[in-house]
Design brief:
disordered N terminus, alpha+beta, nine-stranded mixed sheet, binds adenosine-5'-triphosphate, eight-stranded mixed sheet, 33 helices, 26 strands, disordered C terminus, Calcium-transporting ATPase, transmembrane domain
């Protein structure tokens, strides 16, 4: 103990004051917490427990940022050149393209950012706090000085706390101290000038609880915490970029370079060989380059991703990092834990086994309605009562009833044990009063047991140690078993007990073992030596049925060629039975954590591929299994919720944390958080991920050849010495209106049928598949031919050059619309009622093009700007006819290629489709 503080106590920092004094100074109560009303008042006084948000970019800044792009630079230079040369129309139209692009970009980014920050709000952290005498879950932002907060492994400490209690509490304070070793915590008081890393009695906001449990009183919130003082810049907004976006940007830059080189060559050819005036040649070449470069592509792809994020959130999968949207679509293996994700995590104790016999507990749910009965309806004897009592004492849960509905606070399994004790006729309050708890070893997934130490009721002087846990673990600590007359067996018949465990587990029930020991003395803490030579009270089997929606989702995943593996801490036999009920495999192959340990890194991939169930695993096993699967080229989605799951969540291609059950540590390591902890939501997110990827490919499949069509048409005219079918201004016009209308709608496409009946795309699949490359060439040539056919037709009808070109622009827009309808379905035919009807987005876009084209053709000022002429109805109708013809032709080609079986991706998805052969 340091010397008594000499300064006034409220000037002494809390780490230098004993806990009771801090409680007093904070005007609170260590066992009761603050009253709700007082907490509300203090919240008014101190403000919310949050750090100021990093400044956001203003609208104008984001608009400016759109111009920091090589492609845009090229366009601006072109506009400047056009202006200098007096081509005002071209200069204006190029500037129009750039401006519209920048505006669309800002809008997209705004939408994407809004989508992401809305998700952040869904992920507001919670803390467990004692208010008005009861533990509650509160928003971290609502904590106030004086609150009594409970922390446990995996939590982020929600505010600066003076610790009042600490059980094996260890906290990772690297954030504040840079120290990589976790700090041991206690309630000790240290010198006022002790450095931060030595203040054992404090838990600081933002640091991570690595192990144990604790309770502390809040001494500082928000900016007054240590972390608030150090930096207000925490949680800066991550840039909205993904591997795919980077790939697209790179691709755009490459295209720009190609465009530049080709432009120079084309210009030289036009002037030197074709004898065009250099000014006309230059403007044509610039317009072509502008058309060729897909400057709007990144913006469209961002919005496609943002829409994906929103659709996933609607299906309970909250994306924390944008790249997960793409990766989810490529997932080929989902590794899921069992309890609560594949099963309901609604436990009911059903079977009880002691050394002398078996009993069953009737009733379902947490309502204590039912009875514990031996065969022949006889009431439970002392052995069964002792078993039920062990379950009651070694327990941190609480049951509450409101309106006939019983609810668990805490671990559902422990809730079920409370219900069981009530059914057995025990009085929980009386039992707790008679056996006050002295110490606890909290449950942790590595050791798989929990132990509590209780004082024995007076006049006895000793203590009662109770252990519950995985039955093998508990058996290993026992020397004998309890008999129904209250005495113990001489020895423990281990093989017989293992058989009993396997018997209950084979029905899919989760089994727990219970043991106890009477200690003659009354120690303050549980020591390792106490955990030997226990008396086994018995086993309890819990039913935890599979979630019905998980059964359907497993079937969905398998038909989509995605392997589902269960990685659980539970017993192998229990896990196998549940896996069979879920349909993971007809006869699931089980590997245990011990099997994984016994397998070398070289041999593990084969085992990981073969087994559907990994039982009695620890977080380290998860990490090895993920790596082994990835070494085989699998794209792995992995769930996790504990503090030790962070490494495997990070290693997985998509780490998935549970929103309710998960610790803060797991949520932070994960890319996706499930707001309903449900396996079905992972499969739904994979489904949405596939749709996003499909839509991005559709955007490319539409954008590239439509740009290509113009280029081929104009270059062909130059090379062959034909009249140019489009003026530079007209080329720019087409790009401007179609890129901002038709180019956007594919982002909103609904899923195609059979999305989940295809195998997953290989992780290294190129964005442009062979089929798409073929399409780019075919459509470009087809469009170029159509344009020149219109030129010929116009000439034959004697329309004159201006009117013919007007018709060419109209026809080209119609061709783009026709192709849009075709590209909407890459995996099926587009000629269906649904395909023709389109989506609202498609219809609005087509309507917009229609109105703009009518204006382009018939309004006098547009006629002056773009050198257009009004067309007669008979001529104008050529455009839609061509559009329809293009669609029919391309659909015919799709059907033909599908028959020929040249391109894998065209194979129809169906029950006999490739995905049906899931591993
Ligand atoms: P999953 O990993 O699929 O969620 P799980 O819940 O069984 O499965 P863990 O929480 O790691 O995995 O638990 C492992 C084992 O430890 C359980 O099967 C059970 O035997 C035991 N166990 C779980 N919770 C407790 C507890 N509160 N007290 C004592 N033992 C427990």
């Amino acid at each position: 103990m340091p010397d008594q503080p000499t300064a006034a106590p409220d000037l002494v920092p809390p780490h230098a004051l004993p806990p009771s004094r801090v409680v007093e100074l904070q005007r609170t109560d260590a066992r009761h917490g603050l009253e709700d009303a007082e907490a509300a008042r203090r919240l008014q006084e101190h403000g919310p427990n949050t750090l100021p948000e990093p400044p956001r970019h203003s609208w104008l800044q984001r608009f400016g940022a759109q111009f920091a792009n090589a492609l845009i630079g090229f366009l601006l230079a072109s506009a400047a050149l056009a202006a200098v040369l007096g081509h005002w129309v071209d200069a204006t139209v190029i500037l129009g393209v750039v401006l519209i692009n920048a505006l669309v970009g800002v809008a997209q980014e705004g939408k994407a950012e809004a989508a992401m920050s809305a998700l952040r709000d869904l992920l507001t952290p919670h803390a467990r706090v004692l208010r008005s005498g009861a533990p509650q879950v509160a928003d971290v932002a609502a904590l106030v000085p004086g609150d009594v907060v409970l922390i446990e492994a995996g939590d982020r400490v929600p505010a600066d706390l003076r610790l009042l209690q600490a059980h094996a509490l260890r906290i990772d304070e690297a954030l504040l101290t840079g120290e990589s070793v976790v700090a041991e915590k206690s309630t000790a008081t240290v010198a006022a000038d002790a450095p931060l890393g030595d203040r054992a009695g404090m838990a600081y906001s933002g640091t991570l609880v690595a192990a144990g449990t604790g309770r502390g009183v809040v001494v500082a919130t928000g900016v007054h915490t240590e972390i608030g003082r150090i930096s207000a810049m925490l949680g800066a907004i991550e840039p909205l970029t993904t591997p795919l976006l980077r790939q697209i940007n790179r691709f755009g830059r490459q295209l720009a370079i190609i465009a530049l080189v080709a432009s120079v060559l084309l210009f030289a050819f036009a002037v030197l060989v074709r004898g065009l005036h250099w000014l006309d040649a230059l403007m044509t070449v610039v317009a072509l380059a502008v058309g060729f470069i897909p400057e709007g592509l990144p913006a469209v792809i961002t919005i496609t991703l943002a829409i994906g994020v929103q659709r996933m959130a609607a299906r309970h999968a909250i994306v924390r990092q944008l790249p997960a949207v793409e990766t989810l679509g490529a997932t080929s293996v989902i590794c899921s834990d069992k309890t609560g994700t594949l099963t309901r995590n609604e436990m009911t104790c059903q079977r009880l086994v002691t050394a002398c016999g078996k009993a069953v507990a009737s009733g379902t749910g947490y309502a204590p309605l039912g009875r514990v009965e031996l065969p022949g309806s006889s009431p439970p004897g002392p052995d069964l009562l002792q078993l039920a009592r062990a379950g009651l004492l070694c327990n941190d849960a609480a049951l509450t009833e409101s309106g006939g509905h019983w609810q668990v606070h805490g671990d559902p399994m422990e809730g079920a044990l409370l219900a069981l004790a009530l059914k057995a006729g025990l009085n929980p309050q009386a039992e707790h009063d008679r056996h006050p708890r002295l110490d606890t070893i909290p449950f942790d997934a590595a050791h798989r047991f929990m132990a509590t130490l209780h004082a024995l009721p007076a006049p006895q002087e000793g203590a009662l140690l109770v252990v519950k846990g995985a039955p093998e673990q508990v058996l290993a600590m026992c020397a004998n078993a309890l008999l129904d007359d209250g005495r113990a067996t001489g020895l423990l018949d281990e093989p017989a007990w293992h058989e009993r465990i396997a018997h209950i587990a084979a029905d899919g029930q989760r089994v727990l073992g219970f043991a106890f020991k009477l200690l003659p003395e009354r120690p303050e803490r549980i020591e390792a030596a106490h955990l030997k030579g226990l008396t086994l009270a018995g086993l309890i089997g819990f039913i935890d049925p599979p979630r019905p929606e998980a059964i359907a989702a497993v079937a969905d995943a398998r038909s989509a060629g995605i392997a589902v593996k269960m990685i659980t801490g539970d017993h192998g036999a229990t896990a196998r039975a549940i896996a069979a009920q879920l349909g993971l495999a007809r006869d699931p192959v089980v590997a245990t954590g011990a099997d994984v340990d016994a397998t070398s890194d070289e041999a593990l991939p084969a085992l990981a591929g073969r087994a559907q169930v990994f039982a009695r695993t620890s977080p380290e096993h998860k990490l090895r299994v993920v790596r082994a699967l990835q070494s085989q080229g699998a794209v792995v989605a992995m769930t996790g919720d504990g503090v030790n799951d962070a490494p495997s969540l990070k290693q997985a291609d998509v780490g998935v944390a549970m929103g309710h059950k998960g610790t803060e540590a797991a949520k932070e390591a994960a890319q996706v958080v499930l707001s309903d902890d449900n396996f079905a939501s992972i499969v739904a997110a994979v489904h949405e991920g596939r749709v996003v990827y499909d839509n991005i490919r559709k955007v490319l499949a539409w954008t590239l050849p439509t740009n290509g069509g113009e280029v081929v048409a104009v270059v062909a005219a130059l090379v062959l010495g034909l009249t140019l079918p489009l003026t530079p201004a007209q080329i720019l016009w087409i790009n401007m209106i179609t890129a901002t209308t038709l180019g956007l709608v594919l982002a909103f496409e609904p899923p195609e049928a059979g999305v989940m009946r295809r195998p997953p795309r290989p992780a290294d699949a190129p964005l442009l598949s062979p089929f798409m490359l073929w399409r780019i060439v075919l459509v470009s040539v087809l469009f170029a031919l159509a344009i020149h056919a219109v030129m010929l037709w116009g000439e034959r009808r004697g329309l004159g050059l201006e009117a013919t070109r007007t018709l060419v622009v109209n026809a080209f827009c119609a061709l783009e619309i026709g192709y849009l309808f075709s590209v909407r379905y890459l995996h099926a035919t587009s000629i269906t009622w649904q395909g023709t009807r389109g989506t609202p987005a498609v219809l609005y876009a087509v309507l917009a093009v229609l109105v703009l084209q009518l204006a382009f053709t018939y309004t006098p000022w547009m006629q002056t700007l773009f050198a257009t002429r009004p067309l007669g109805l008979a001529d104008l109708l050529v455009a839609p006819a061509l559009g329809a013809l293009a669609m029919l032709l391309l659909e015919g080609e799709k059907a033909l290629l599908r028959r020929l079986g040249w391109f894998d991706e065209l194979r129809l998805a169906g029950p006999e489709g490739p995905g049906a052969r899931a591993p």
